[in-house]
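Hey team,

Sharing the 5-methyltetrahydrofolate--homocysteine methyltransferase run so nobody has to redo it. Sequence (221 residues) first:
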Amino acid sequence: MTPEEILRGLYDETLVGNAPRVLELTHEALGQGMEPQSLLFDALIPSLEEVGARFERGDFFVPEMLVAGRAMAGSMEVLRPLLADTGVETVGKFLMGTVKGDVHDIGKNLVNIMLEGAGFEVIDLGVQVAPEKFVAAIEEHQPDIVGFSAFLTTTMPMFKANLNALEKAGLRDSVIVMVGGAPVTQEYADAVGADGYAADASATVKRAKALLGERRAKVPA
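Structure output:
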């Protein structure tokens, strides 16, 4: 296959969530000496952006987003170390975790894949993440954005507990805080004092980029 055919194949197969074929094409591309960045920026990211656009239009639903995300994740496993070696600049660093008391991670994992596909470096703390663990991870990794995910209404109050912990540690102003999850609303995000909220994975990427852009515009060069 020509490089153009490979890129088109990667785009199309990611769109329909054909993970084995995406992985096959990734290896074929690298075998031909194609640049990892080209696969990412010319095929995988545009494909996931199209997935997001179709989701917003109501043409795609969560299952389609998940399979496309997983297809891309398989390719990213191969590309990630190569991209790191080539020093590809990341959009920003995003620290993510499901709050204490909550073990749901499907939505969080999908958001992580979308963020990574959009050029973010993602650090995933997993589920049941206590406030002190978020604090320690922020101190260690110094992310631009931290994301708190909650699937249960009973665990949503952990958003406030986490924010209080950041405040106490003197970290609140150093990081953008985003919240999300099935029961979460913009009103709730505002009430707890988060910087941003997004209803789904596609919206999270847009909101994260917008918040990061606003933050950087305020910082003098």
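The chain has nine helices and five strands.

Ping me if you want the raw files.
A.
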